[in-house]
Amino acid sequence: MREIHLPSNSMMLSKDFLYGVATSSFQIEGDRDGRVDCIWDTFCQQAGTIEDGTNGDTACNHIALWREDIEMIDELGVDAYRLSISWPRVINPDGTTNKVGLRFYTNLVDAMVNRGIKVFVTLYHWDLPQYLEDNGGWLNRETAYAFQTYAEVVAKTLGEKVYAYATLNEPFCSAYLGYEVGIHAPGKTGVANGRKAAHHLLLAHGLALQVLNRLCPNSLNGVVLNFSTCHSATDSESDKRAAKMADDYHNQWYLKPLLEGKYPDIIHALAVEDRPDIREGDMAIISQTIDYLGINFYTRTIYKASDSNWFDVVPPTSTELTAMGWEITPDAFTELLVDLHQQYRLPPIYITENGAAMDDEMVEGNVLDDDRTAYFHTHLNAVNNAIEKGVNIRGYFAWSLMDNFEWALGYSKRFGIVYVDYDTLQRTVKQSGRAYAKLVKSRINGYISGTK
Ligand code: GCO
């Protein structure tokens, strides 16, 4: 069996470094009857949106099987579980709260805390209530204020039992994929829409952060961003410039406002009508201090200059790909972390997602996914390399606890360290899950000599 090894002096082998597993509400919960519709329910009903024509009606049926799932998390021995709350399971269209939905999350969090598992709650992992989308969704500034109200309900209910709150997961995906290129819900398109949605999401983050800091000052309150390092296809000046523009447009567009209160300069390259409407005070709300930054990383992206003075994606040339067709690039992970550390005054970092979809096969009750274990091995070592270069990284979450609904790709891609049989919903820990558990359990208490 393949294993995950770190250098013997790695601080990631001490219990000061936190290990967890991550999921999100729409991807695992099911039980559509227990909540109102979200934009993904609507999107799934539209022809041609989801590769395998599936939806989230049942998913992993986690709402029914949550006790078993907690048991499984506990058996893996991880320190923390990162989950998201379904906004449409908590707030009804008339503004009243869904008591059953709220009780579900209270029970879940209590059960975790009782087992000594730290809970990381994400408030928004893309499942916007459809009734808000009907009023414009993230194109409507009011949605940011509705999010603040929802955050208050959650913070009052779960309070400081939650170790860490994240306001948003990957606003890049919500804004760009959902409102600019339309491959995610709600399927809208256009630069103006994408940039407007991004601004309202960032505003929503800031407004929710105010509430979290007021009601849960002892929880860690932050946000989760995804990054793909932007590499240039060639050494030509125009391609290098294109890669830099892509980085500004896709990565820094979210981080710079949060940490420095301004958008990157590429905003000036946009037509005036495509720029977001930034009102007085917005950037101050957006750039309040966060306790931590969650970073999600999967792969790098290669760019070349486009004819229109913009940037184009170049497909990977490497043969080392995951089942998503994503290049396996652990060095780019270290590079990303070190670059961000050099560029910004970063708060403490948690790697809130990292993992790989692979073509898993269940053979006689086992999934021998050495390829996924190898991915974890190289990427955890990449994190260790960044720590050695001075980046303050406190923890790592494997994406994902179990196979689940992979958005526009439906159930066709498996990211789990636990296999889910979608006919029986039976869960089986994969070999990578055992390797991860072994690493987690091998840690020792306290300080490791030789580390900073
Ligand atoms: C994301 C989301 C997850 C995905 C995962 C794999 O990072 O896109 O947080 O919901 O399932 O990233 O694509």
**For this structure, what is the CATH class?**
Alpha Beta
| Ligands bound to this protein structure | D-gluconic acid
Low-confidence stretches: none
| Cα-based radius of gyration, to the nearest Å | 21 Å
Globular, elongated, flat, extended or rod-shaped: what is the shape? Answer: globular
How many beta strands in the DSSP annotation?
Answer: 15
Give helix and strand order, one letter per element, not per position.
EHHHEHEHHEHHEEHHEEEHEEEHEEEH
Number of helices: 13
CATH topology title? TIM Barrel
Just name the CATH architecture: Alpha-Beta Barrel
Helix content: 25-40%
Helical/strand content category: alpha/beta
The separation of the N and C termini measures: 32 Å
User: What profile does the largest beta sheet have?
Assistant: 8 strands, parallel, barrel
Major sheet strand order: 1-2-3-4-5-7-10-13
Beta-strand content: 15-25%
CATH homologous superfamily caption: Glycosidases
What number of structural domains do the residues give? Answer: 1
How confident overall, as mean pLDDT?
A: 97
Annotate the secondary structure layout.
Blueprint: E1 18-22, H1 25-28, H2 39-45, H3 62-76, E2 80-84, H4 99-114, E3 118-124, H5 130-133, H6 142-158, E4 164-169, H7 171-180, H8 191-215, E5 220-227, E6 230-232, H9 237-260, H10 282-286, E7 292-297, E8 301-305, E9 311-314, H11 330-343, E10 349-353, E11 362-363, E12 366-367, H12 370-388, E13 393-399, E14 418-420, E15 427-429, H13 431-441
Bound molecules: D-gluconic acid.
D-gluconic acid binds next to loops.
